[in-house]
Amino acid sequence: MGSAAASGKRENARDHGFSRLRDFWRTLTYSALMAGQGALPLGWHISDPDISERHVEGTLVLNRIGYFALAFLAVAISLVSMRFLTFDPGVLAEELRANLLGNPLLFFLHTTVSPFALLLGVFQFLPATRRTAWHRWSGRLYVLLCLLGAASGLGIAFTTTMGPLVGSGFAILAVLWFAATYNAYRFARNRDFARHRRWMIRSYALTAAAITLRLILPISGLAGLSFAQGYLIAAWGCWTINIVIAELIIRARPNPGALPDRVASARKDTLAA
């Protein structure tokens, strides 16, 4: 009897494990298809409350992990970038000093305000700050910093000594950064908060080009590319990668009204932006 009972427990445990694995696989597939708006396998339904709820609960966890990773990088790179507050050309890579020396006002304006925009913006996505005076006033300061950073960035993009392709990449980034931030502010002023959040995601994705740039450069060096080659890739990749990610995040956000009540409530309370 004891042997039979033990065997039954093992079978139940195995079946439970297979069931959990199957549910995990289906949830991952559902998540991917939701992001891509693809068709679900035969017999699956987007309105399936079990899969839908597990997907959203898993997304909440992933959102938190992603947010804290982003916040860590934003704080770290902001603090490192504040070395420009010394106004010492020696803190800049030798290949970029000519642009700094030729346009010190615009260059130092860009490199001193942008780290504060990166640092301040990441905390705008915290749910606890919403509907508070802090969110509104820090949001206004973020907008001002971004507009100054974008305008000065556009100016030094045209005078870079790294070539016209690099300059074009950074010029487009500056224009998009300015436009996205202005739209986020405009929709907030009009109390169209759904559009405000979408444009804020785009704005901060472009602000965070500072993070992606500093990830691309060392990776390019490890790949054996020269600084000039890596910088050219970074000039375009730092914002194109981010804006694609931002659009995927915007598209993947489900309509809270279509979710189970408990999950919809959690989504409204905890999802950033």
Short description:
The protein is built from ten helices and no strands. With 273 residues, the chain is an all-alpha fold. The C terminus is likely disordered.
Overview of the molecule:
This protein has 273 residues and is mainly α. It has one domain. It has helices at residues 2-36, 49-81, 97-102, 104-122, 133-157, 164-189, 193-207, 209-222, 227-252, 261-270. The protein starts with a helix and ends with a helix. The relative contact order is 0.10.
SSE arrangement:
Elements: H1 2-36, H2 49-81, H3 97-102, H4 104-122, H5 133-157, H6 164-189, H7 193-207, H8 209-222, H9 227-252, H10 261-270
Helix pairs in contact: 1-2, 2-4, 4-5, 5-6, 6-7, 6-9, 7-9, 8-9
Secondary-structure element order, as H and E? HHHHHHHHHH
Beta-strand percentage range: under 5%
CA distance, first residue to last residue:
58 Å
Total DSSP E strands: 0
* Multimerization status: single chain
Q: Please summarize the sheet with the most strands.
A: none
State the share of residues found in helices, binned by percent.
over 70%
Instruction: Give the overall shape.
Output: globular
SS-based class: mainly alpha
Mean pLDDT: 78
Provide the low-confidence segments as ranges.
24-51, 255-273
Count of helix runs: 10
